[in-house]
Amino acid sequence: MGKTKLLNRFMGICFSLEEQQRQRLRQQQQPSSRGNGAPVISDNLDSPGMKTASGSQVTPKNVTPVPPKKNVNDLRQNPGYSNVDIFTYNEMKLATKFFRPDYILGEGGFGVVYKGVIDENVRPGYKTTFVAIKELNRGGYQGDREWLAEVNYLGQLRHSNLVKLIGYCCEDEHRILVYEYMESGSLEKHLLRRVGCMLTWSRRMKIALDAAKGLAFLHGAERPVIYRDFKTSNILLNADFSAKLSDFGLAKDGPMGDQTHVSTRVMGTYGYAAPEYVMTGHLTARSDVYGFGVVLLEMLLGRRAVDKSRPSREHNLVEWARPLLNNNKKVLRILDPRLEGQYTARTAMKVAGLAYQCLSQNPKGRPVMSDVVALLETVQSQGAEEEMLQSGGGVVTLYEVPKRSSHNSGDKKRNQSGFSGSTEGESRRRNKPGNGRSKSEPPADREPCDFRNSSSNLENDEKSVSARK
């Protein structure tokens, strides 16, 4: 217990000093006498070394990577990214109607994000495209280093679960990024809303799978990329509620060859950062896995990672909830009550077990993201089968009734993560005579909330698009 309190105190000190560290970094990054006077970063950005890919592939295709830009001056002289457009500041003003306040989607220490449209009026011949335009606040948290990191990584990365970088502007002192517009905003907004439509169980599991695919893609590169800032506000949702990772300002190349980790100063968000990274500064892909576990836990419980409004022992979600995740009765009692009737106990325990493993204090005890994707895909397919069973009457048989044996009554507790399959006890419960529905399965006449009908309200209350708080 003393060790946990010490870790919390260390994390709090570390993250409270983050702004001071960034201010000192900005002072070191004042304009140099080299070139045209553009700011020069003292530490070169690591090469993304990333191969491009399409669709939902986890393994990138083999193409020659573009050398990363070491500073803004280098980017201006050698743009290099053929699939990224370079915009003028005047075009950005036209796209946002001169940065109209009612076009603001979100804002934070980095600056402001505006909704915009790039069309014939902005650039002749340009196909009409709705975009999110992120203007860097020169006095804010993000400096040229993080802005350039986003250009370097998203300039080369292409995946269905990464937000698309359409272009950028680095005219004079202006630093602007232009992304595809994500109509439904951030996962954080929908997950924590208390009125109106909320995210259903099936939609949450689909979002978890999408985000896992994005991380697996990054980790599976020839030169692995560590995202380093996995949290609900950085997971954006499009009109169909497909999830994509945004904000690559803190992304970093992972270890290569015989390296076990990369050493870096601690950055990220309190509550999501892996404990070994906070304590040592040693960064690995398993650090991202821990962050994924935190977000998965937030989706299961419908709570924030850190919430000071709750009783003191529940301030930190992971510390309070993780010990309960491998206890069948306790975990079902702490799940988001708004989800009641939308899942089977077997499925809930499988996902809770996955979160438990992702949140292991020992990095080696966490699964790799490709295994996380595989498990969540089985959860999704099982959910579809259960829906077919409920709606199809006795027409389609998806499960065989297992043969009963006299010696299986003692198999009540098994590994709940799902990596080693279902238990015989679960099979008996699933085939228990009765009304054909377990306590936590939805009744046949229950209809999920339709997000499409409420899309007009989503734009007005979007306050967290790509914002790092």
Automatic annotation (TrEMBL):
Can you list the GO cellular component terms from the UniProt entry? plasma membrane
Region: Disordered; residue ranges are 22-77, 403-469
The EC number of this protein is 2.7.11.1
Check the record and name the InterPro entries matching this protein: Kinase-like_dom_sf, Plant_Ser_Thr_Prot_Kinase, Prot_kinase_dom, Protein_kinase_ATP_BS, Ser-Thr/Tyr_kinase_cat_dom, Ser/Thr_kinase_AS
Q: Keywords, A to Z?
A: ATP-binding, Cell membrane, Kinase, Membrane, Nucleotide-binding, Serine/threonine-protein kinase, Transferase
Q: What is its main location?
A: membrane
List locations, semicolon-separated.
Cell membrane
CDD domains associated with the record? STKc_IRAK
What Pfam family does this protein match (any one)? Answer: PK_Tyr_Ser-Thr
Residue ranges annotated as compositionally biased, kind Basic and acidic residues, are: 438-450, 460-469
Q: What positions does the domain Protein kinase occupy?
A: 99-379
Q: Which GO terms describe its molecular function?
A: ATP binding; protein serine/threonine kinase activity
- State the source organism's domain of life: Eukaryota
Broad enzyme group? transferase
Residues recorded as binding ATP, renumbered to this chain, are K134
Physiological role:
May be involved in plant defense signaling.
Family from the record: Belongs to the protein kinase superfamily. Ser/Thr protein kinase family.
Entry protein name: non-specific serine/threonine protein kinase
Native source organism of the sequence: Citrus clementina
